[in-house]
């Protein structure tokens, strides 16, 4: 897999052309809930206008809950009484918001939020084409790979804000490196993520060492306070309809409440990531950063980006229909509420605009899918077709790795083939065999697929994923709820359970209400740009949403 993504002949074409934004896609959607209506193109007739007379905030806060499905807000709505409930009541709630691309993963999703552009234009088209960068190691001896936004192309809201006001300050924080890095693009701002030794660190891309305020927070050794602590149910047992005894969760290990962290601080530093306590640490660090950097205290607008990752780790291990996920949603609701209370004690709430969203959803664990799901979901592997592919390439006296599969894409090094007919022959041979793999819904030649993005939502989302002039020869879409294996529960499909995410904008310049039309995560950046009166650095795929009077 490494070779297909990072090997020079295969990835050069895929990555180097991504900066040229293609026209926004339009028309049909994967759900019948209004997504079949095409969003108006930026600047087109019918695009909603956001008046320029709104109050300009002093602080914009982007809260991204990793792997948070939109339906969690309604599924557990009667039990929500913290930040999620407050934002839904007091903000503009877009109930049909989607990531309008096909590979709904963390890296591509985060990269859309403040760039206003699809993965084909940001260069962040998959997790594996994300932020890993050996040339930018962690500072202060942290655990984990080096990371930077080197593959990100273009600009984000941070760049537009800074161009308009040099005093603008930005802080971005997450458990994950990609969750902290990608919302703000290539900007060399204050960007920090979690190291399993219990500290928040950054990489040499941003600075040579940690500032004193970060070191001061790390010296609190907050993770030590969680060592030996148990994650127990927030509400009485009767408040949960889900069974606790579901052995497929956690691979059959430790799937019953309560979930106790080890007394060993080092082990707790790693294991805390699968508990709600991880979000508590990220939010505490963010508040410390707000006071240390004086975000929102001036007469200009600053930006705070938060990505809360515990929901994602819990979701992958327990699934979206588990008692653990139910409790996590309740806890992240309370945690965000406590965070907002603390933030509003530091800064006037009327000077803050908050955006709540997610980077993707998640599908039901395949083995737990209802019997009504037809065909039955499967864990899919292309391993059985690879030997025949290698043999076919050797017959043609071509490098046996000149064509590769990487989960749902087929890549080719076209220069390895003396005749284009030989490449076409190999691709046709491979795709015919992939179509026979149980769990595969459709296989499309990428160039042919882009001919129909008006009536075919799957085609539209694939067209938004990769630039036209890439070395992606074909794309593979699985049956609904089928996965590529690995995680207990997973995401990454163009279907609604993965694409549909919450989108709430609340606070300064926003009129509370509910909007039920189909919108996209690429609409967030142009909406905020209009609110702040800043100019995007390039053409965007998104358009401003109606949020004010």
Topology:
Elements: H1 2-6, H2 8-16, E1 59-65, H3 72-75, H4 83-90, E2 91-98, H5 106-113, H6 119-122, H7 157-164, E3 170-174, H8 177-181, E4 190-194, E5 200-201, H9 212-218, H10 222-226, E6 230-231, E7 259-260, H11 265-271, H12 277-293, E8 302-308, H13 310-318, H14 323-346, E9 352-357, H15 386-395, E10 403-406, E11 409-412, H16 420-434, E12 440-445, H17 446-449, H18 457-463, E13 472-478, H19 496-499, E14 500-507, E15 513-520, H20 524-532
Parallel strand pairs: 1-8, 1-9, 2-15, 3-4, 3-8
Antiparallel strand pairs: 2-14, 4-5, 6-7, 9-14, 10-11, 11-13, 12-13
Helix pairs in contact: 4-14, 12-14, 13-14
Describe this structure in words.
- The protein is globular.
- Helices cover 31% and strands 15% of the residues.
- α4 crosses α14, α12 (277-293) packs parallel to α14 and α13 (310-318) runs antiparallel to α14 (323-346).
- With 549 residues, the chain is an alpha/beta fold.
- It starts with a helix and ends in a 17-residue tail after the last helix.
- It has 20 helices and 15 strands.
Q: Outline, from the CA principal axes?
A: globular
User: How many distinct beta strands?
Assistant: 15
Rg over CA atoms:
23 Å
How many helices? The count is 20
Residues in β-strands, percent: 5-15%
- The residue-averaged pLDDT reads 90
CA distance, first residue to last residue: 50 Å
Low-confidence stretches: 1-53
Strand order of the largest sheet: 5-4-3-8-1-9-14-2-15
Which class best fits the helix and strand makeup? alpha/beta
Tell me the helix content. Answer: 25-40%
Largest sheet report: 9 strands, mixed
């Amino acid at each position: 897999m490494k070779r297909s993504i990072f090997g020079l002949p295969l990835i050069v074409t895929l990555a180097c052309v991504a900066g040229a934004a293609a026209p926004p896609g339009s028309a049909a959607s994967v759900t019948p809930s209004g997504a079949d209506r095409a969003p108006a193109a930026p600047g087109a007739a019918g695009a909603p206008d956001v008046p320029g007379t709104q109050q300009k905030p002093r602080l914009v806060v982007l809260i991204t809950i990793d792997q948070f499905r939109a339906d969690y807000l309604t599924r557990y709505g009667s039990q929500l009484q913290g930040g999620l409930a407050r934002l839904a009541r007091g903000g503009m709630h877009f109930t049909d918001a989607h990531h309008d691309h096909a590979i709904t993963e963390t890296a591509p999703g985060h990269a859309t939020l403040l760039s206003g552009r699809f993965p084909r234009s940001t260069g962040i088209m998959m997790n594996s084409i994300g932020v890993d960068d050996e040339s930018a190691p962690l500072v202060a001896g942290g655990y984990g790979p080096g990371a930077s936004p080197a593959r990100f192309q273009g600009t984000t809201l941070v760049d537009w804000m800074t161009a308009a006001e040099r005093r603008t300050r930005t802080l971005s924080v997450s458990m994950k490196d990609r969750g902290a890095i990608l919302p703000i693009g290539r900007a060399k701002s204050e960007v920090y993520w979690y190291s399993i030794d219990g500290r928040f660190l950054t990489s040499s891309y941003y600075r040579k060492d940690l500032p004193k305020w970060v070191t001061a927070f790390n010296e609190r050794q907050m993770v030590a306070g969680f060592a030996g602590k148990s994650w127990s149910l927030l509400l009485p047992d009767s408040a949960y309809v889900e069974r606790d005894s579901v052995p497929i969760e956690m691979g059959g290990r430790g799937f019953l409440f309560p979930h106790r962290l080890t007394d060993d601080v080092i082990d707790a530093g790693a294991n805390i990531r699968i508990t709600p306590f991880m979000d508590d640490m990220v939010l505490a660090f963010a508040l410390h950063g707000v006071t240390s950097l004086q975000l929102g205290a001036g007469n200009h607008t600053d930006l705070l980006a938060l990505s809360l990752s515990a929901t994602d780790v819990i979701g992958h291990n327990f699934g979206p229909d588990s008692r653990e996920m139910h409790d996590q949603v309740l806890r992240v609701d309370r945690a965000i509420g406590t965070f907002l209370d603390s933030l509003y004690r530091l800064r006037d709430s009327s000077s803050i605009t908050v955006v709540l969203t997610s980077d993707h959803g998640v599908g039901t664990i395949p083995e737990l899918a209802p019997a009504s799901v037809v065909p039955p979901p499967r864990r899919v592997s292309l391993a059985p077709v690879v030997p025949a592919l290698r043999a076919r390439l050797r017959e043609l006296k071509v490098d046996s790795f000149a064509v590769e599969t990487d989960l749902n894409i087929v890549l080719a090094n076209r220069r390895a083939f003396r005749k284009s007919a030989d490449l076409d022959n190999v691709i046709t041979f491979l795709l015919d065999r992939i179509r026979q793999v149980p769990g595969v819904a459709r296989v499309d030649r990428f160039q042919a697929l882009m001919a129909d993005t008006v009536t075919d939502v799957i085609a539209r989302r694939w067209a938004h994923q990769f630039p036209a002039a890439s070395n992606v020869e074909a794309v593979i879409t699985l049956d609904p709820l089928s996965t590529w294996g690995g995680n207990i529960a997973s995401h990454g499909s163009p279907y609604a359970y993965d694409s549909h995410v919450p989108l709430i904008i609340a606070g300064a310049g926003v009129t509370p209400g509910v909007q039920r039309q189909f919108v996209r995560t690429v609409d967030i950046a142009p909406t905020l740009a209009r609110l702040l009166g800043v100019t995007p650095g390039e053409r965007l795929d998104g358009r401003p949403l109606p949020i004010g009077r």
